[in-house]
Amino acid sequence: MNMPLLARPEDVENAFYEAIAHADLDALMALWADDEEIVCVLPDGRRLEGTAAIRERWRALFAATPRITVRLSQPLHWTSMLLAVHHVIETFYTADDPAPKSCVLATNVFQRGVNGWRLLAHHASAAAEFPDSDETGAPGLAQRVLH
């Protein structure tokens, strides 16, 4: 898959969660850096190293649960010229069920190269509880809903 130049780390992050929402393995894999030392740590504790391992695990995840919606909240971003780190809270939903299925703390590391920004590492860990809502009862102000 030929991926367009992604000008900002946020573009990669948005495309990553869109690929998850659409169970689009090719789109998801096109977002990773062209480096065999990419790493993906899943909430179950698995550490996946390299393109082949990451591709195979996400293929299995999409086969098991093809429709996942992820809502991001409480983002923290650090960005330099060649590296960006985003820490977010991911809340997962399946199909049309409005009840959250799980909550995960995730760190996404992006690298800037000749092909724009790409994902270098995704590290997800189970969260102790669901994120707090704001005083109105609505989810966090910076939340994004991806379908």
TrEMBL record:
Residues 12-128 form the SnoaL-like domain. This is DUF4440 domain-containing protein. The lineage of its organism: Bacteria, Pseudomonadati, Pseudomonadota, Betaproteobacteria, Rhodocyclales.
